[in-house]
Specification:
heterotrimer, A: about 300 residues, mainly alpha, two-stranded antiparallel sheet, about 5% strand, B: about 260 residues, alpha/beta, Rossmann fold, 2 domains, 6-stranded mixed sheet, 4-stranded antiparallel sheet, globular
């Protein structure tokens, strides 16, 4: 069963990793990696497989986060209901904007998605009566059926499980008629069209799906951190997410996980070099894309295949 | 009744008339060729028939229904399939997956089912993969069944496109210069392949520069010049048409001499 | 009422001039290479920052401006040589990431050299506002609008009258054909980065007295330049200027009459609306794809 090998390996890593995590700080990093990885696995379907860029995906993370924060903390909704409502709302918003936006190509698409993200960010900053503005707002812990997710350890296992589920869903899509249609949109849009694929419809579907992934993680982040600020939906966060896809390896689900791991850890490592973290981060971005244009995992895999 | 009727079709690009007032009909089950010098508008006609371009005026009627200006995927749904002069292969996929893309309309397209990989979907997909491999053997690229598309040579990719087009089980197949860039042996094999496709009952529309190939297999031939119909008829009628000789074959003869 | 509207127009034109220069930078590089240079805003930031550092080190203002523009032009050249050229024929997403990497890198360098604070450059010719029909205009605004106008004229002359300018246009139109008639398209690419960087630096220097400067001012003005360039139609020089001015005016009017809190969202809402109806901006070429 080749299709489950990668998943099994990752499950093993997730199961064994706690042995190497000495304290909550490391758990925290691992949880952030996992959460980013879930977003990026979804985003990779859009960017890596379907070949459509989004420079505003953090906007959807932000919408999910604030849906959970506002509904659960201000209106007393059960967290799960708030999360599902957020996902549905983001799905509808993404669906409404997707059709006109995804007709655009290349840089025009980049521009439109960037604009969308920035508008969402500004709404979150300015509607402070609801969102707390730039100061953000606190979020009550996630609870379900009387059980409350509070400790890092609990969140670690939940995030790990959701990540594995997300990867399973993503891989299933890639290896299905829908997934082939998406990849054909990337490979040759004309060929896809004459093969009967309504390419706009598929772009819309994958855009909505990746937005819903982002929203779900936004909700998780809000409850885990117990706090949200508009920064979750900043332009820089959108860039970070795209970078995870590109550095890890486009059209490679596990590459996306690797990208999330590296780019989540990196700022933590660089934080000690006050002032130089941006220089290093920028350099790493440029160097990876220039010298490993296919991304880390596909390049490594190709090297191994050659060597073997 | 004709399978395809093209009526007074015109398309211009910024004042240049690529196709002008063109009418013709194609009977089902025939091999119909469109020839003409470079820039005569042959590929434009294909693009108009398959919905990639919208006509400036005129009508396209396929299988009894007006399909003028319909999107490419809607034409595919009605049974129109095609290949491209400059390859349109998805190099981000394996060879067999490229062919499976052609079968898209016959497969499950539900998002949820795909995510959950429902057993029925997985089963149909496996059958589709088998059929795609079979089609690859049919067009003569059986040895690339396990290959990635970007590992295949040019000649094989041209056939792979034909296999993809056939995977849609079309009523009408448009082949845009299937023999371009191929050596004589390969061209001969394409010749045989087209006849095999014709025999299987698919209507074939062919744009091709190789005159020997065209004259040998076509039931009817349409000659285009500057986007207009110059002549139409059987191979013999076209070959003997003085205007055709002057405008087109003469040039070839001169070049060959 | 009239004076208020006039006030918004002044402020719109002032900002619009900067957006136009930024947009021209985007369009120049886009034409030469097909790259959207997300580091364009950093050229603007670097121009202002360099001028502030030089003047505070005692260099006279005119010389400081000249040096700042030269330095940033060199940065533009280095960016092209060491980041864009080695990437070769990378796809759009990769090129976007490279220039974003460059942008973050340059911000980092500026942060280390300049610190995190905000500083202003001294106005070129005093700060006594000129009052016109009840609306006041800073002399520095006139410098910004005037500089913008002069640069547009110079560029129009350059692309319309000089061999080099025409070679750059030819390259934008058809790179292969340009190469066939003997144009060194690599030089054109490098030159487009140098000119764009210089444009950015000039915009940064003339705006630094009003908008203040710090290591992170480049992002917004850069993104808005991208909006302006897209609004006009990517690659169109006229489009960039018109797009920049429209953007500046819309932003000022929206800030005045609708909501100043959403001032920065206006350009992005505007561009999304425009793209809904005109997928290639106002002046972008309508193309039929060949298959």
């Amino acid at each position: 069963m080749g299709r489950f090998r990668g998943l099994a390996a990752l499950a093993l890593i997730i199961a064994l990793l706690p042995l190497a995590l000495p304290n909550n700080y490391y758990y925290d990093v691992a949880i952030r990696i996992g959460m980013n990885a879930i977003i990026v696995v979804g985003l990779n379907l859009l960017i890596g497989y379907a070949g459509q860029i989004s420079l505003g995906h953090a906007g959807f993370v932000g919408l999910g986060a604030y849906a959970s924060a506002v509904l659960s903390s201000r209106f007393g909704w059960p967290p799960l209901a708030a999360m599902l409502f957020g996902m549905a709302a983001v799905g509808v918003i993404a669906f409404v904007v997707a059709r006109p936006i995804l007709r655009l190509r290349g840089h025009y698409l980049a521009m439109a998605t960037l604009g969308l993200g920035i508008i969402i960010y500004m709404v979150l900053v300015n509607e402070s009566a609801w969102t707390g503005g730039n100061d953000g707002m606190s979020v009550r812990p996630f609870s379900l059926l009387g059980l409350t997710l509070a400790s890092e350890r609990a969140w670690y296992w939940v995030t790990g499980a959701v990540l594995l589920g997300a990867i399973l869903l993503a891989n299933n899509i890639v290896d299905s008629p829908v997934g082939r249609a998406l990849r054909a949109v990337h490979g040759s849009e004309v060929a896809a069209q004459v093969a009967g694929i309504d390419t706009t419809r598929y772009k819309v579907r994958v855009f909505v799906l990746s937005a819903v992934f982002a929203s779900a993680v936004g909700s998780m982040m809000a409850h885990y951190l117990g706090f949200v600020s508009p920064q979750v939906s900043s332009f820089f966060h959108s860039i970070e997410l795209v970078t995870m896809v590109v550095v890890g390896g486009m059209a490679s689900t596990y590459g996306a996980v690797l990208g999330a791991a590296i780019l989540t850890t990196l700022p933590q490592l660089l934080a000690t070099f006050e002032g130089y973290e941006m220089i290093t981060f920028g350099l790493i971005l440029m160097l990876t894309v220039i010298f490993l244009p296919r991304g880390l995992l596909p390049t490594i895999a190709a090297r191994l295949r050659k060597a073997g | 009744m004709a399978l395809l009727e093209v009526q007074a079709l015109s398309r211009s690009f910024g004042g240049v008339h690529a196709v002008q007032d063109l009418s013709f009909e194609i009977e089902p089950g025939k091999i119909y060729s469109i020839i003409g010098p470079n820039g005569a508008g042959k590929t434009t006609v294909f693009n108009l028939i398959t919905g990639l371009y919208r006509p400036s005026s005129g009508r396209v009627v396929f299988d009894g229904s007006n399909v003028t200006g319909k999107a490419p995927h809607e034409l595919a749904r009605r049974g129109v399939s095609r290949t491209f002069q400059n390859l349109q292969i998805c190099f981000n996929m394996s060879a067999v997956e490229n062919v499976m893309v052609g079968a898209h309309l016959r497969l499950d397209q539900g998002m949820l089912g795909s995510m959950l990989r429902l057993p029925a979907l997985a089963r149909r997909d496996a059958v589709c993969r088998e059929e795609a491999a079979e089609l690859m053997r049919f067009v003569g690229v059986g040895k690339y069944i396990g290959a990635l598309a970007d590992a295949m040579p040019y000649g094989a990719l041209k056939r792979l496109e034909i296999a993809r087009a056939l995977a849609a089980r079309p009523k009408m197949l448009l082949l845009d210069e299937p023999a371009a860039g191929l050596n004589p042996t390969e061209t001969h094999e394409i010749d045989e392949l087209i006849q095999k496709i014709g025999v299987s009952g698919v209507t074939v529309v062919l744009v091709e520069h190789d005159m020997k190939l065209v004259m040998g297999i076509s039931d009817r031939i349409l000659v285009l010049d500057y986007g207009r119909k110059l002549a139409e008829g059987t191979a013999r009628e076209v070959r003997d048409n003085p205007e055709v000789i002057a405008a087109y074959l003469g040039v070839v003869a001169k070049a060959a001499a | 009422m009239l004076s208020q509207t006039l006030q918004y127009l002044f402020s719109g034109l002032t900002n619009g001039a900067i957006y136009a220069l930024s947009a021209l930078g985007f369009s120049l590089i886009y034409n030469a290479s097909g790259v959207i240079n997300f580091a364009q805003g950093e050229f603007i930031m670097l121009g202002g920052v360099a001028a502030v550092l030089l003047t505070s080190a005692g260099v006279p203002l005119p010389l400081a401006i000249l040096l700042a523009v030269l330095m940033v032009a060199v940065v533009g050249l280095l960016l092209e040589k060491f980041a864009i050229e080695p990437a070769g024929d990378a796809d759009v997403v990769s090129l976007i990431i490279i220039t974003i990497g460059a942008s973050i890198f340059l911000q980092g360098v500026a942060q280390v050299v300049f610190g995190k604070g905000q500083r202003a450059l001294a106005p070129f010719t005093g700060d006594a506002p000129i009052v016109i029909a009840g609306a006041s205009l800073l002399p520095q605004s006139l410098w910004m609008i005037g500089t913008g106008a002069v640069i547009v004229l110079v560029l129009a002359w350059f692309f319309g009258r000089t061999r080099l300018g025409k070679a750059m246009l030819a390259t934008a139109h058809n790179r292969l054909a340009a190469r066939l008639v003997g144009i060194n398209t690599r030089h054109v690419l490098a030159l487009s980065f140098v000119i764009s960087a210089a444009l950015g630096a000039i915009a940064g220097v003339v705006s630094a007295p009003i908008t203040l400067t710090s290591y992170d001012v480049g992002i917004m003005v850069g993104l808005k330049g991208f909006v302006a360039a897209t609004l006009g139609g990517l690659g169109s020089g006229v489009g960039a200027v018109v797009g920049g001015l429209i953007l500046g005016l819309m932003e000022a009017l929206a800030a005045g009459y609708i909501s100043s809190a959403y001032k920065d969202a206006v350009p992005f809402a505007l561009i999304i609306l425009i793209l809904f109806f005109m997928p290639r901006g106002l002046f972008g070429a309508r193309v039929t794809e060949r298959v």
